[in-house]
């Protein structure tokens, strides 16, 4: 008699890919499970195909499908494993963290750099590690890759080919896996009531500044129907305002009711709008600091926040509250 039930939800990606004229998702969830002989001795593993996509095509509509399928699966299972393409896996993991926050069960995303059928690939190991992690029952949304366990809101893809593709940014690893099993260190903090909050707003864009970015690029966002924008600024949140006044443009967007979030182009450390005069001017205009969130977390959280409320003041409050470890690591 099995004590644990884990469900595999397959969405496509390289791990399920095959083809001689270019890789494309081909294997079903059941076929992926066949590469883990002996799993049946550890748990009852069920399988379901919900998507079959190259993750370059993973968009907000698909995030809602995955969230609903995950929430449904967790009603009858102790954990869920999701296979996903690596290119946008960090975005999906972050969005699921917000949509499914408060759940007291494990949701684990994984993928691979080579198809699971590849003899020298990483697919089998990553999938086995994902099931091993899910079977611990540790609540939260996690990314498991190359024997590392990362919070869904902290994982970022750094390598397109190397097997050590993902890093946990601005937070220590949630845990690791080795021959002795899973070693938890800093699992996801669980806050709020368990439930599904899948409402989102896809009218959000991300702009990476370069020296000389023209204000007109920002001025047109409102006319294009955007309700939120994440700005990847310099350093702790700097941007130019001589000759090309981006401060004025961002303030004008905020006055039009468009939520403006400033993050940093630096992979590590935090946005701090209180440090320099330019940052203080942004803060005075209602621009929202992303603190030490990853870009993926900032973008998906803004989409999620705008799905909860249309009031830009309330969006600001939501963006600056830590829900699942996306902000702050001072206590670690």
User: How many whole angstroms does the radius of gyration measure?
Assistant: 20 Å
| General shape | elongated
As residue ranges, the low-confidence spans are: none
Instruction: Going across the biggest sheet, name each strand in turn.
Output: 4-1-5-6-7-8-11-12
Query: How do the SSEs run, as a string of H and E?
Result: EEEHEHEHEHEEEEEEEHEHEHEHH
Quote the distance from N terminus to C terminus.
39 Å
- The number of E-state strands comes to 16
- The helical percent reads 25-40%
H/I helix tally = 9
CATH class type of the largest domain:
Alpha Beta
> Approximately how much beta-strand content do the residues carry?
15-25%
**CATH fold call of the largest domain:** Rossmann fold
Assign the CATH superfamily of the largest domain: L-asparaginase, N-terminal domain
CATH architecture label of the largest domain:
3-Layer(aba) Sandwich
Number of domains: 2
